[in-house]
Amino acid sequence: DQHFNLYRLSGNDSIGNVLFTGYFTPVMKDRSVRDSIYKYPFYRYPGRKKGMSLPERSAIDFQNILKGKGLEIAWSNNLFDNFTLQVQGSGIVEFEDNTRKILAYNGKNGYPYTSIGKHLIELGEITKENISLSAIRNWLMANPHRVKEILSINKSYVFFKLKEPTPIGAASVPLTADYSVAVDTDIIPMGSTLLAEVPVLDENDKFLKHEYRILFAQDRGGAIKGTGRIDLYCGI
């Protein structure tokens, strides 16, 4: 107690129960130049003049409001891959010459994050028990006419920059799978050490047990608010 200030997170229920979610660094095969298949751009931060707001997702993805401004840094073949990378915060892209780079977080447009998974549950399209990244992807592939409607629910948009391929968190240090976490830094200072009972899942994502683990607050996320949620980094 001479070296640490100790606190207990109040959690969702004020008695310390915290929701654990996970995020990861995806690897995607993309292109450095647009073609007829790889036509969905990742943008760098466009800058913001004083008193002006940046466009929301629907204007960027479906009205192409940033097209031709020299902001494109890579191209994917699937718009949902771009969306997924924005939710994860960063990802590794493998270009056509087999070189790899990190698409690292470079700012956002300022709109609050809205979960499309929760929205699909509310619409009755996917059950709460079956919701997952792959379930959302499969639903969008089966309903291409609703991609614009569903993705536009989340007005938040993340911009990127190219860096060397080592996943780095908001604390500017490399992330360690199963030990680095994203937190709300308004409450938990960056660099904090946490002791937590982490849920352990089997290969089918079924709960097995809890285990005590030392965690490190080395990242932040737009959807991580308050003390009720911790986002565990799960690796590449």
General description of the model:
By secondary structure, this protein is of the alpha/beta class. Helix content is 16%, strand content 29%. The chain has helices at residues 57-61, 79-88, 116-122, 133-142, 147-151, and strands at residues 19-23, 27-29, 40-43, 72-76, 91-94, 100-108, 158-163, 180-183, 193-201, 207-220, 229-233. The strands form 3 sheets. A 5-stranded mixed sheet has the order 1-11-8-10-9, with no helix packed on it. It has a 4-stranded mixed sheet with strand order 2-5-6-7, with helices on one face. A two-stranded antiparallel sheet has the order 3-4. A hairpin with a 5-residue loop joins strand 9 (193-201) and strand 10 (207-220). The longest helix is centred in the middle third of the chain and has 10 residues, at 79-88. The two termini are 36 Å apart.
What's the topology here?
Blueprint: E1 19-23, E2 27-29, E3 40-43, H1 57-61, E4 72-76, H2 79-88, E5 91-94, E6 100-108, H3 116-122, H4 133-142, H5 147-151, E7 158-163, E8 180-183, E9 193-201, E10 207-220, E11 229-233
Parallel strand pairs: 1-11, 2-5, 8-10
Antiparallel strand pairs: 3-4, 5-6, 6-7, 8-11, 9-10
